[in-house]
Amino acid sequence: MTTQALIYFSTRSETCHRFTEKLGIPATRLPEDGNLAATQPFVLLVPTYGGGHHNGAVPRPVIRFLNRPENRALLRGVIAAGNTNFGRAYAIAGDIISAKCQVPFLYRFELLGTQADVDNVRRGLHHFWQQQAAESAC
């Protein structure tokens, strides 16, 4: 069986929420307080904060969520939104989470994402979960 859990964080701007809706796959929204208990392996989709700076790039609710060992243990990958105007800090929240949690950074997209981004993420997640299922079957 293929698990396709996606957890995402979105602020009042709804940027990541709108992107996630376009994916057309089941997803769980991380609340503003970060109080959510993951129950199965998941990929995390996050915006990047901080205006081009490393400090503050990962939203605080995401930090609180990942500071729970049981949530971090189920994290399998990360996808990040960002703004290319921030140069090397573009979607850096994904780089930070990937490095700290030792999971793959699967994809980055700008702002609301394009239709190509939506298609790439949808296809990529499908392939990723198939690969995860095959590895766990061994």
Protein model, in words:
This protein is α/β, with parallel strands linked by helices. It has one domain (5-137): 3-Layer(aba) Sandwich (Rossmann fold). It is 40% helix and 18% strand. It contains 5 helices and 5 strands, in the order E-H-E-E-H-H-E-H-E-H. It has helices at 15-23, 60-66, 69-74, 92-101, 115-137, and strands at residues 5-8, 28-29, 42-46, 75-82, 105-110. It has a 5-stranded parallel sheet, sandwiched between helices. Helix 1 packs across helix 5. It is globular. The two termini are 14 Å apart.
- Portion of residues within helices: 25-40%
Under the CATH scheme, which architecture would be assigned?
3-Layer(aba) Sandwich
Q: What integer is the average pLDDT?
A: 92
N→C terminal distance: 14 Å
Specify the structural class: alpha/beta
Low-confidence stretches: none
Order of helices and strands: EHEEHHEHEH
Task: Briefly note the CATH topology name.
Answer: Rossmann fold
Organism: Morganella morganii
Family: Belongs to the NrdI family.
Function: Probably involved in ribonucleotide reductase function.
InterPro entries: Flavoprotein-like_sf, RNR_Ib_NrdI_bac, RNR_NrdI
